[in-house]
Amino acid sequence: MLRLFKKERMWRTGDLKPRYDVVIVGAGVHGLATAYYLGSRHGIRSVALLEKGYLGSGNSGRNTAIIRSNYRTPEGIPFYQASVKLYEELSRELGWNMLFSQCGHLTLAHTDSAVNGLRVRAENNQVLGVDSRMIFRDEIRRLVPAMDLSNRPRFPVLAALYHPPGGIIRHDAVVWGYARACDRMDIDIHTFTEVTGMRVEKGKVRSVLTNRGEVAAGSVVNATAGWASIVSKMARLPLQIVSHPLQACVTEPLKPFLDKVIVSATLHVYVNQTDKGELVIGAEIDPYQSYSMKGTLPTLEQMATYTLELFPQLHGLRVLRQWAGVCDMTPDFAPIIGVAPEVENFYMDVGWGTYGFKTAPIAGKCVAELIATGKTPNLIAPFSPARFTTGQLVGEKAAAAVST
Amino acid sequence: MSVDERSETIRFEFCGKPVEARAGDTVASALYRSGQRIFTRSFKYHRPRGLLCLSGKCPNCLMNVDGVPNVRACITPARAGMRVRHQNAYPSLENDWLAIAQRFDWLMPVGWYYKTMTYPSAWHAAEPYIRKIAGLGEPPPAGSEGGEYEHNYRHAEAAIIGGGPAGLQTAVELGSRGEQVMLIDDQPALGGHLRYSRNSGVAAAELIADLIGKVQKLSNVEVLQGCYCFGLYEGNLLGIVEPNPHPNAAERLIHLRTRRVVIATGAYEAPLLFRNNDLVGIMLSTAAQRLIRLHGVAHRVPDAGLLSQAGARLEWDGGKGAFVSVDLPSHVAAVGDVTGASFIAASRLPPEQVMASKRAFVCLCTDVSSKDLQDAIAEGFDHIETLKRYTTATMGPCQGRMCQLSAISVCAHETQRSMGATGTTTSRPPNPSVTLGALAGARHHPTRRTPMHYEHDALGAVWMDMGEWKRPRFYKTQTNSEEKACVEEEYRAVRERVGLIDVSTLGKLDFKGRDCGKLLDKVYAGRLSDLRPDRVRYAVLCDEAGIMLDDGTVSRLADDQYFITTTTGNLEFVEQWLEWWLVGTGWDVHITNMTGGVAAVNLAGPKARDVLAKLTSCGLDTKAFPYMACRRAEVAGVQALLMRIGFVGETGWEIHFPAEAGAYLWRTLLDAGREFDIRPFAVEAQRLLRLEKKHVIVGVDTDALTNPFEAGMGWVSKLDKEDFIGRAALRRLSGEELKQILAGFIMNEEALPEDGAAILVNGRLAGRVTSARYSPVNRKAVGLAWVPAELARPGAEIDVRVGGRLARAHITQQAFYDPEGARLRM
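Output (structure tokens, whole complex):
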């Protein structure tokens, strides 16, 4: 209770030091989590986070904050599952309530082939210990009475993959919670510090150049999401990544009527109602490559159309804002985590496409372990950058195609 | 339009009571006249709130109108019979039990929910109650509809947003030059603030009348009255909402593209900061006048959302006391009060003791006070964007219009930065807010039907969706409506006699030109340039990584003509893919999509030849028409292309013919087959028939990462031909050890796995079933499954999950039916 009335600064601001053991580019959830686990699990506290905007200004504040682990592949499922477990404990661990509500997550199927796709996920989830199962109209109606389950829509809902531990979290609170914890370990967070280049010598990044001066670095982490390929290029490492905008919007608040996260790949839309009562609606990635973070009208119209297919009664509900994030897409819809042999102290935690937010804790933890021990944790071994030369792709496309 | 005193009164209902209104009344003005003072209760503390802006910009009059929540009563015209209800208050606006929340505001300092309930159990217990208290209007009940919306698309040389003096002046100027102009004004009548300003006087009225007269004379200036622009998007696309365009539509969304945009949106007034500044009645005109006289403060804000969306930078102008837009893009201009031209700086912040009050509200939408902002800044949320996200100021229904400037002032003051250095938050569309209905427009979800659609309907088809197409899944019969039995009957007809299936949904592309063979060799993995005329070949399309994208048949009709089929779902992609690789080659190839114009059926079974022979003079015996040949011939008087292919594993012909003859030829074939007891068969039977032959369906048995080698179809790629799409990858893959293989399996017991079932080996997840069906020939379920390569040998045992338990199966090498393919060649 006392804490409620205490006014303490969440994080300090200060000058860049000339050198850090680890310099993390990007102070979003991935960079912050990496720093936090470096400090808390491995005692590495000479760490700097460099953020070109305000804290949480990238995808960490632009995603739709959905957490789940009902993925498709044997590589993906344990990884996402480990992340959900960390999220479940995070509010307590950091002493900061991130408002994680495990309200349950439904992926809808409107076609035969989608039903089969969901069944593959349900089966793999069950074998690997994830709470996830197929449900049909009667049970869907019980869980989501507000949704149109009649045969009126062009593609009526046939079935759903129900994932009870899935849910939503307050995304900004995750950023702030990690930032506060990093600050308490004397890890430096430098906002409005844009990385402009890197000095690479003999297969190592020696220092990072910023708009506030040069910083020498023992190791460098690239955790810059949509800008990952640009930052990697500074370390002379081309990446198999293209950047696409992903749009979302939010409506005015209503009294609670929807307490499940609803996702439809056929309708390219996902919807949830926040604790405040707003509907948060997300689209699939825009079909073109761009770094633009401006919303477009056609995508907004699509989000509205598909939302009304599921909830036709909401036609009079007003959209308050739309926005976009920039997603770093890989060919197999799986991330790239690890070190490329060409630059031995340049760690990548990129290629997070449309599913980066939900993995931040486990990705940060694994990357921290990799930096501290030099050994690749099993959970991230399948996501090594080497897979693009060996051809061993991961194949999460079917479970990640609609973004959440 | 103003209220017409002489007009007849109409009545509407407010919370069950009748309210009188006159023409020109809004819901709010009529309610006000009837004595209503409290219009809403606030979001967090449930404080009573009354009319404030009367222009649809603040959150103070949100009500439920005819079942639609969060309607701005102050800009909604009163209509006879409408039903208006209050929201977010119980039992009434005057007496709201939750107003007790005000007493506990000390327990809710800014960000209180982040600092408490950090134990998951505490949060899980509290969250449902918090949800219940939050939110504004009641959502309409499920199943309620109503509200028709429409879209239209317009073009103009110039768009002017705002019909005040500046907008009108610009319209006259541009219009006189002969430009096609659209003037968009969100008020009921032109004139802007001069319509109601106290000191505008006679001269202003004359000026306006003169400008309106001129605008009306210009035939090239079109006025969209009562319409609001909510977004200025890339490429000068304006999103405009026209309410009630005609009696059958609630709203129309106009997409307007213009060469130039002139923004003349003027300014609006935002509330001042003082203790209890949210009290009901605080903005009565006398109160406002007194404030202006006593405090010398007018809190005007340029309505610059669209300028900001257009890419203009907002810069603080101390002299004007406003953020003004600079660096406008060349195609956008600003005129009038939106530029801040007539503004005079005024002191803005109240004394410290007022600032430190929990009752000086910055954000009316979510009850954020200046004290809350001070506390947040002290905690480190000192950037305007983080301050916004932490306190939720500017994030409510007013979209920051009432609170942004105050929030920036407080932030600047507390951080001792200038207003300019503090900056603004990003203005995002839509602004003003827009309904989902207007954005969605009319429902247009097209359905594609084959020419034989109604024939199938008459035959008892049970439908399924395949992309936009409707296809019969199976046919009910007079004696049977159960899927399993019907499918088996259809299956037996094909295996034992003859069956007919509509395959019109296949993608069909006609290729003409000298260089067709070259293009096909470049894009498909197989070799097609050496295909002889009158022959058909199966072909697979791979991408650069060697992943299978689509498959189909390629028929050569002449030296310079091919006919290609694609899978139903991939037609658009394949057509674009082929066109993409054709670009820049200079080759003589013309691709025509024939899908809609050509119907197709597959006539298959041991008696197929007998049926077809009744209707065509084309030679059909195996010598004249061998397996994998094609011929053009008349069938029942219809010009058709016949291909002898066998997806279902029996002697059969795929017949392509003009769509106009679809229903006729379908009926004629069924009539001709009656003596052989022909049956129409549908998708489910076809799936079973092809599965017994182990014919792979791309996209069902393969996924987004499958290459031909692991699908057991390495033979489709001709690695020795000249370079083609995917050759490098396929070459590498051909030499690599496979990790997993698509293999056939037969269940050892009675169990029938579902498509997608998991496969376990020694208790570990090892693969999945892609397709499984009960095979009448094998009297067991058979299927295709992805299994580890080391298990893809005949006899190897796997465990398949069936209904949550494990069932044994073994791998087979051969097709489950007619492995030699003898029946296809009969």
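Residues 293-297 of chain B have pLDDT under 50 and may be disordered.
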